[in-house]
Amino acid sequence: TDISALVEIQKKEPLVEFGVLWSLSAAGKPRYATREWIEKASEAGLNFSIHLCGKVCRSCVEGTETPEIPGSPRRVQFNINGMYGLPSWYRVFESIQSRHDHKLQFIIQTCDSYGPYVVGLARGEGHDCVPLFDQSGGKGQAPNEWPKPLPYMHCGFAGGISPPSIENTVKQLLRVPGETFWLDMESKIRVNDRFDLETIHKILQITQPLIRMA
User: Fold this and answer.
1) Residue 214 has pLDDT above 60, yes or no
2) Greatest distance between any 2 Cα atoms in the chain
3) Are strands 75-79 and 155-158 parallel, antiparallel or unpaired?
4) Is the pLDDT of residue 144 over 90?
5) What is the Cα 152 distance to its own chain's centre?
6) Could you give the 3-state DSSP secondary structure of residue 107?
7) Distances from the Cα of 44 to the Cαs of 4, 8, 38, 118, 161, in angstroms?
8) What is the pLDDT of residues 50-81, one digit of tens each?
9) Residue 53, Cα to own-chain centre: how many angstroms?
10) Contact (CB, 8 A) for 113 and 84
11) 99 three-class SS
12) What are φ and ψ of residue 50, in 5° steps?
C-alpha cells in the first residue's frame, strides 16, 4: 500500500489508525508488511499499530523470547486467541516498552474471558493495556451480540464489520453504557485480498457524522 496515500487519509481523519500485521515468517507476503515498509511508514509519521501474529506473539505468551518490534507504532496488539501462557507473561510489555522512546499502549485481542483477565492484571501493574473484543477470533464474523465494554477504558470491537453494517454497528455500541471505543476492520476492507483505499474512504464518509455524535 502506498504510504503517502495513507498519510493523506490521516491528515483528513486524524482518528484513523492503520493496523499492520507483523510476522517474521510471513513478512512480505499478502497482508503482511515488510520491516522496510514499517520503517518507511514510521519515518512518514503514519499513525499505526503493530499486530503481533503467529510465532512472534506466541514467543511472548510462552515466555521464550521478547520480540523486536520494528518501527514506531503507537500501539502493539497481541493476537492471543487460543494461546494461554503463565499469568505473568504480560510482563514482556516492560521489555518491549524499554526499546521505544514513546509511551506504548498494548492491546489484547480476545474472544473469551482470558483476554480481559490479562488486561486486568497488566493494568494493575501500571501498564496501559486495553481489550479488543473479537468473538470470532480473527475470522471476520459478526457476533450475535456485542460484548459489554470493560469499565473505565477505551475498548475495541471487531468481527465482520463492513461498509453496509458499520453505521448500525456504531449506533448499537453508542447505546451501550461505557467509555469511548474503536472499531477494528480487516477482511471487509480488502478487495482481492488487498487493502482497498476506496473502501476506506467509503467507511470514513459513513462514520464521520457518527464520530461527531459520540
Assistant:
1) no
2) 46
3) unpaired
4) no
5) 19
6) strand
7) 8, 11, 10, 33, 28
8) 999 989 999 999 887 888 899 999 999 999 88
9) 11
10) no
11) coil
12) -100, 125
